[in-house]
Amino acid sequence: MLHIFLHVAVPLAVAFLFYRPRKAQAALIMIATMAVDLDHLMADPIYDPERCSIGFHPLHTSPAIIVYALVFALALLFAKRLEGSGLGSAMRLVHLGSLGLLIHMALDWGDCVV
């Protein structure tokens, strides 16, 4: 239960600390990235409390995490450059989504090392 709570509490904290003008939108986007856990449905059994998600589920693998990190960095870079255009807000959404995925992976990895 603590793990699930952290998947909501950490994005909320990040939104309130770093995205104050749009904290509600930022929090909702980052929390929505919990949908990445739908890849657990492909596992047998679907839930195993002893299993480490990182490296096991397709969207929790190193290549996927590298993509999330690259998208985060590129979206952050381009959001600043495209601030005046309509693409700036789209890049902000991509940035927040990838940040949510990185937070999610970090929290899942924390369960693996404990």
Description of the structure:
It is built from four helices and no strands. The protein has 114 residues and is an all-alpha fold. It has one domain. The longest helix is centred in the C-terminal third of the chain and has 27 residues, at 87-113. It starts with a helix and ends with a helix.
In short:
With 114 residues, the chain is mainly alpha-helical. It has 4 helices and no strands.
Count the helices. How many?
4
Radius of gyration: 15 Å
Helix and strand pattern: HHHH
Oligomeric composition of the shown chains: single chain
For the termini, the CA-CA separation is 15 Å
Largest sheet: none
* Overall spatial form: globular
Structural class: mainly alpha
Amount of helix = 55-70%
β-sheet strand percentage: under 5%
Number of strands: 0
Low-confidence stretches: none
Please indicate the count of domains. 1
Mean pLDDT: 90
Keywords:
globular, 114 residues, mainly alpha
What is the topological layout?
Layout: H1 2-18, H2 23-32, H3 62-81, H4 87-113
